[in-house]
Each structure stands twice: as structure tokens, then as C-alpha cells.
Amino acid sequence: MIDFYIRKQIIELLSDIKLKAIQKKSISHSDSEKYTLQIFEKIGIPIQNDSAKLFGKPGILQELILDIHSSAYFTIDERKLFNEDFNEFLKLFPKPQSKEELKFRILGNNGLYPNVDIKRGKVWYKNFNSRPSIVTVNKINSEKEYSNESSIYWITRTELKFATSLILSDSGTRLFPYFNPYDTISLNYEYVKDIPNEEIYYFLNRWMDIKNVFIQPDGSMFNRNPRPDISTYDYSKFDPKKSGFNKIFDSFSIRDHLLMRTSNYLLKALMNRRNLLFQEEAILNAFFALEGSLHLLQRKYGDDSTKLNRVLLRDIFKNKLTFLPNGEGTYEFIEEGYFTRISLVHPQPRWGAEWNPYVDHEDFRDYFGISKMILAWILGENEIDFW
Predict the structure, then answer these.
(1) Which of 9, 88, 193, 317 is most buried, judged by most C-beta within 10 A?
(2) Over pLDDT 70: what percentage of the chain?
(3) Which residues contact 161 (CB under 8 A, 6 or more apart)?
(4) Cα dist. 168→316, 330, 336 in Å?
């Protein structure tokens, strides 16, 4: 519960900032620095020597005001009253010129992470403050185009590229990142382009902490959970070059819808598996990933049709995937799994409904492992074990 007098002071301060800006018909850089520090003081954000320099930019000030406006600092009636000149006020903020957006995310403690920093393309993974974090730079228009106007867009294409490359690496471990819907922020790249690389994680963590002031840590759908203790994270030794990560990452196209969709299933399979109640969903996603992998495999060898070519696939497993001890037997095992897949997908298969179809933990290990093996071969011709 926010103190009544603090709420009143915040509303009065924002109203004063709005009035002065509208009267001047502009917001200068010095105004932004001054207003940002005033807001920090009222909200209770610690002010440091570099606070004005890092956060006193018009675009960041605008985000800060929008966060307060949408938070519990305003009641519905107060928000309506404040909104009288709000759009006119927002028009005074200069529009960012950069066509790229930086996304920063602190990853969840249900994954298994590399113990080293990874920088590749427009991705930077770092264990900052003993927490695994990832920064990606994404083209704004491209992300909108590839979202297909879907409102359910939980991960950027570059994040998925990084995650899949990590999963497919032949590291001798089971590395994978776990994505939460919270502890993630996006900023126009213009606001961070002047921050040195060695300071960017410092800035982003502080900015996320500031934004989290306006989000309740109560675990509800649109809020967030408290951050877990750093001792709950697991790390493993990792070499991006020796493991094949770099090779797979470089060959991964974020313009390939089939590859992206298959990778989406692969990652969701692992994430679901971390919850004992979602073991069926984990196996189901593993089957979906396997189907996508088979389509990608037959495409690699000349058939880009939307129907699985079983004759071609059998030949590929027998004569192309020669590193398998029994390639044709592996393909037959895949076909046998189709009945389990049908039992999970369809409530009324032709052999009758089963409220709880028989599945086993080994089903996930086997079919996820085959999907992983196929994708690693497609992207980097890496010869990895099933699991």
C-alpha cells in the first residue's frame, strides 16, 4: 500500500512538470535531468553521482512518467483528471531516431547456465551480480513483422536463437535458459548507445530496479515474483567454440519460420519439464519439436513440401545420419511414437479416449533427444548424443 501523502506529492510533482513543459512547449536535456532527479527523490530511489547522466534523458524520463501514470500512485479518478493535457504533454518528448531496440532479461533459476560470458552477433550473455542475464539488440520493424500481429509474443527471435544454440551445443551438459515473463525491459537503442560496454549491465540492472518499483512482487499474472536467492542458480563449464555453439548460432536464421517454430517447441519442452504438473505438456512439445525437425531434415535433403516424406526420411536416417549406430531403427522408433503423440493431442483417437494416456519419463528423454540431435545436425552438422 502506497502512503497517501507520498502519492499526493508524486501527483503534484508530475502535474507541475507537465504544466511547466506545456508552457515552455519543449523538454530540454537539462529539464530531463532535473525532473528525473526530482521524481527519484519523491519515489525514494537512491540518487548517485551518475544518476542524472545515466537516466536524465528525455526518452527515459518519458518511460518513467508513463510507469508512474500506470501504477498504483494514481487512482482511476486521479488518472482521468491528470489525462486532460497528457497527450499534449507526451508530444513534447522527442521521438527516438534509432530503429533498434535493446532488450534486457534476467533469466530464471529453473535453467542450467554457462559459467562464462558469451558475446555473439547482437547477443551478450553475462552472469552479472551472480545472476544469468541476456542482452539482445533487435530491429523494431522486423520484430513487429515477424510477430504476425500476435499478442502472444513471449520471446524475441534473437533470444530464441541464443537459447536454441545453447541447447544444441555438444557441451556434455544439459544447458538451457529459463525465461520468465517478468524481470525484462526494453529500451530504444538510442538511449544506451553512448554507454560503454563495461557499464551497460550496471545501467540496465539499475533501470530494471527502478521500473520494478511500480510492479508488485506478488506473483500475479501481470506483476512479478521476488527474485530468487543467487544460490538457487546452477552453472556448468562451457566453451562456446569447442561446444559448437558459435557454429550453430552463426547458421541459425531468424527469418526461417519453420526453424523458429521448431525451436519454440524445443525450448518450451524443457521449460515445461521443470514443473512436475506439466510433464505431459513437456512430452507433447517434444513431439511437436520432433515433427518440425523432421520437416527441416527433409528440406535439407531436397523436399520442402508441407507433408512428411517418410520414404525420404527413412533413407536419410539410414544413409545420411551415419553417425547413428542404427539409423533406420531410430526412424522406426520415431514412427512408433506417433501413437503416443496422437493419444496426447486428440481427446478421442480411433482406438478410444483415455483420460490419462500412458506416457513415461523416458518418452521425453528419447523424443526430445532425437529432436535435439536432428537440429544440431541440420544447423551445424554436429554429431551429438540423443541426450
Answers:
(1) 317
(2) 98
(3) 123, 249, 252, 254, 263
(4) 20, 19, 24
